[in-house]
Fold this sequence. Notes:
7-stranded antiparallel beta sheet; 5-stranded antiparallel beta sheet; 12 strands; globular
Amino acid sequence: MNPAPVLSAIVDLELSYIRHLGTARNFGFGPVISRAPGRGSVATFALHVDCPWRFCIGDRIVVGSFDKWDRADDGDAVEGLDEIEPAETLEHAMMADLFGGEGTTEAEVLLDHGPRVIEVRDTGPGSFVIAFEGDLRLEVFAVTSRTEAWRFFRPGAYGDHLVFENGRKNP
């Protein structure tokens, strides 16, 4: 499955936000629009990732999905996510540092002028890299043969969701 042709819809768009979505992360791309009262806001495109991911600059990992299991204060690793507030995790601290603390809450990182996507490329079955300006990249690794790894869609639209689950693409 080659997700890059579909994901290329985000090329030239900015990363708008990064939100918690249960155990997954929701990456929003493009302008943020308000929905009906009480329903929050969404970006033009959403990428829900429930598999390993990481942000890298050059040859350095800046923050990754497994950083949610470590405390930002160098304390002991956590046994379960219910033991620690999201704002206390290394993941949260590194995201705030990478994208600036402004607009950062326990549940999300909001970006006024996030990095612009310049390329999306496939790296293996269900895995891909989103390259941003400034040598920043988001690497996503599908590592499951049974459950949903990620989904890409246009929030609020009734169109197809591109989903990678059970080790393959499901429209």
